[in-house]
Amino acid sequence: MGNFMKLQLALVATVALFTGCAGSYPERVVTKGPLICEATEVCPELAMRWNDEKRDGFKITAEINQPTKYDIKQFVFLVDGQPYEYSTINPTQYTEQVSSNSIIVPVSFLNSFRNGKEISLKLVTDQGEIDRSILKADGQKSSAYLTFLKGYTGETAQ
Asked: What is residue 42's predicted lDDT score, i.e. its pLDDT?
């Protein structure tokens, strides 16, 4: 290993050390989970993590694993009948069979999300809208919702 590689590794380790305690929130990289879908439906997955730059909200990423490319333009969350619309901040990314894009949401949105009784997500794409449940009124929770709770509160829902 050359000196340049050693220097790079040392820098990465140092940065990791400092960013671990920056801000008032711990770094939470949350694993992703699918929404509630029928077997025949396109089933987006959601991933959430703290917004690295500002630490004042979450970055929510939707991934659609399909051969068809979906240009994801907007996320519309419906929380107990109240719409929360967020436009994507960057162009949709395409890797192999995955179309993905992200939004940044404030912590205040996450409080309503956490307290919601019925939550769905509509992804607005160039292929039409994909509307799926995150949390159903009967209490059925998607993996995406359980992932969110775990990352947001550090706890798991029963």
From this structure: 94
Q: How far apart are CA 135 and CA 113, in angstroms?
A: 10
Q: Is 83 exposed, middle or buried (0-12, 13-18, 19+ CB in 10 A)?
A: exposed
Q: Write down the pTM of the prediction.
A: 0.75
Are 45 and 144 in contact by the 8 Å Cβ rule? The answer is: yes
Please enumerate in sequence order all residues whose Cβ is within 8 A of that of 51, keeping only pairs 6 or more positions apart, or say none. Answer: 57, 58, 59, 104
**How far from the centroid of its chain's Cα atoms is residue 148's Cα?**
8
Q: Is the pLDDT of residue 58 over 60?
A: yes
Whether the per-residue pLDDT at 80 is higher than 80: the answer is yes
At 146, the pLDDT band (50, 70, 90 cuts) reads confident
Q: DSSP code of 119?
A: E
Burial of 30 (0-12, 13-18, 19+ CB in 10 A): buried
Annotate 97-125 with b (16+ C-beta within 10 A) or e (fewer). Answer: eebbbbbbbeeebbeebeebeebbbbbbb
Quote the percentage of the chain above a pLDDT of 90: 50
Measured CA distances, 145 to 36, 48, 92, 119 (Å): 10, 10, 23, 9
Q: Are 88 and 72 in contact (CB under 8 A)?
A: yes
